[in-house]
Design brief:
Blueprint lengths: L13 H14 L4 H6 L3 H15 L6 H15 L2 H13 L5 H9 L8 H15 L6 H9 L4 H24 L6
Length: about 180
């Protein structure tokens, strides 16, 4: 159980109950990670709104974003996020365990399009070594066919995940996937 007080589904009222209902509608349940945010209802709402934005993103697939989150979380040693996103890749996108292992070992082995692999490489570097990125690195991503809006969204998603990893490692929600 998380080390911070959270609001269980059956005790949720007002904004927390409203957000929990949306999460359940979209995910089928309320992951422990989201319940951890319930101690701050506004933060729960903001976090959910951002996730909902990415769930309906016009150009960044949910599969691509799950790979980003998994690999960023491997770097940050966030077992909850590694497991959650690995589970998504296996159960929602039919990845094999061998594909997961290969991707974790070398992101270029991910069963993604070449275009997605170029963006993946960039966002992983942005999340771990942003000072080493150059305008030439960005141009490679643009040359692969990505628009600046998608690049910004992908980098935001990856760097937000760094924060999420730190948050979840701090409060230690139980695995529930």
């Amino acid at each position: 159980m998380t080390i911070i007080s959270t609001i269980p589904r059956e005790q949720a009222t007002d904004k927390v109950a409203e957000i929990y209902t949306e999460i359940e509608k979209n995910l089928g349940y309320i992951p422990q990670a989201f319940q951890t945010y319930s101690a701050s209802p506004l933060l729960l709402e903001l976090t959910w709104r951002k996730i909902a934005y990415f769930m309906d993103h016009p150009n960044l697939s949910m599969e691509f974003l799950a790979v980003v989150r998994m690999l960023v979380s491997v770097e940050n040693i966030c077992d909850y996020c590694i497991g959650f996103n690995t589970s998504l890749l296996i159960n929602m996108f039919n990845w094999s365990h061998d594909q997961i292992i290969a991707t974790r070992h070398n992101p270029n082995d991910a069963p993604l399009s070449d275009k997605e692999k170029v963006l993946l490489s960039f966002v992983l570097r942005a999340a771990s070594q942003p000072l080493k990125l150059t305008s030439q690195d960005l141009q490679i991503v643009r040359d692969a066919g990505w628009e600046d809006a998608d690049i910004v969204d992908a980098v935001s998603h990856a760097t937000d995940n760094v924060s999420t990893d730190l948050f979840l490692n701090t409060f230690k929600p139980e695995n529930d996937f």
